[in-house]
Each structure stands twice: as structure tokens, then as C-alpha cells.
Amino acid sequence: MHLENSELKMTTRYEVARWVSAIIHPIAFPLVVLGIAIYTASSSLSTTLDDLALAIVLTTLPIALLVGIQVLRHKWTDLDVSVRRQRYLLYPFGIACMALLAFVYTHINAPPVATRSAIALVLANVVNGLINFTYKVSAHATGAAASATLLWLAVPYISLAVIATIAALLVGWSRVVLKRHTPGQVLLGWTVGVATMAFALLMPLPAFL
Q1: What is the pLDDT of residues 178-199, one digit of tens each?
Q2: Helix-, strand-, coil-residue percentages of the chain, each rounded to 5
Q3: 106-126 residue pLDDT tens
């Protein structure tokens, strides 16, 4: 009976971790937080929806399509691209998509928080991509920590920032439970996410932006 209870706890823990990992995904979760930040800055639902649509078309869909195709072709093992060497293509592709988004945001005069958030994600992926040559880093942790930092620095609603921080902690826990990352890889992801978002939000923008 004790063994059965232990196995049930392990199964429940794994399922909870799997759902947390799926909900606080590095593609979906930052989009939600970006929408909150843009709406806070613009007070315009139409502006928010337009800017989010651009983010989806220029980043979410191309990246999801690349991952899906590579998994279907059996080039990559899973949708999380868990094997470090399989990310050698993913990071440059993601950087190009996010750089394009930052460029477009700049030239359509999107709210500065939108442009700065896109720049932060470019920086985060550059850092993670370089780290990835020798060590695996959690993209889930990076995306969630960057999102929490965005809310702390750009949105005057502490409750939302607290929720996002809890989400970042939970997704880090989930990646370890699912054995996709070690605690060190999660901690590194959190560090990259916080540092790059804080830098992008607080630095002076270059003159050409």
C-alpha cells in the first residue's frame, strides 16, 4: 500500500509539473505578459491586439512551425527541443525572428515597452545561444523570469508581478521534476531572464531606434 501511494504521488507530481511546463511555456507566457505591458502603456485594446498579432506572426508562428517540422522529420526529439545540440539551429532562428519584431515595433512607433521587451528577448536568446555551445540552459526559466521582471519594472500592479514571479518559480520546479533540466540550468535561465529584461528596460535606447 505504501509503495502504491508513493507511485501515485510521483505520478501526480509529474502530471502537475507537465501542466505547469505547458502553461508557462517560453512561447506563450511572455506573449500574455507582453500584452499586459503594452495595454498598461497604451490604454488601447486595439494597439495591444495589433502589437500582439505582430509578435505572433513574426515570432510565435515561425518558431512553432520550425519546431513542429523538425520533430515530424525526426531531426529533433521533442517539442521542447530538450537535446542541447538540437538547439544550434533554434537559437539563431529565434534571434532573427525577435530582432525582426524589434525592428518592426520601432518603425511602427509601438509603445517603447514593446520594443524594449523584444530587444530583451533578443539579448536573452543571444546569451542562451552562446551558453548552449557548452552548457544547457532552461528557456522556460528564462522566459518566465524575463516576464516577471517586465511586470515588476513596467506595470504598476504588484499583484501581477507577484503572480508572474510565482509562475517563474513553479516552471523552474517543473523542469527539474520532468528531468529536462538540473537546478543549475534553471537558476542560470532565471538569471539570464532577469538580467536581459532589466538591461533592456533600463538602458538608453540607441539613436537609430
Answers
A1: 999 999 999 999 999 999 999 9
A2: 80, 0, 20
A3: 999 999 999 999 999 999 999
Whether 93 maps to a domain, the answer reads yes
Residue 207 is assigned to a structural domain of this protein: no
SS3 for 7-75, per residue? HHHHHHHHHHHHHHHHHCCCCCHHHHHHHHHHHHHHCCHHHHHHHHHHHHHHHHHHHHHHHHHHHHCCC
Residue with cell 539563431: 92
Q: Residue 79 domain-assigned?
A: yes
Give the per-residue pLDDT at 12.
86
What's the pLDDT at 34? 97
Q: Cell numbers of 178, please?
A: 520532468
- Domain assignment of residue 209, yes or no: no
How many helices (H) and strands (E) the chain has is answered by 9, 0
Range of the domain at 72: 2-202
How many domains are there within the chain?
A: 1
The tens digit of pLDDT for each residue in 156-182 reads 999 999 999 999 999 999 999 999 999
CB 194 within 8 A of CB 151: no
Q: Specify the residue for cell string 512553432.
A: 64
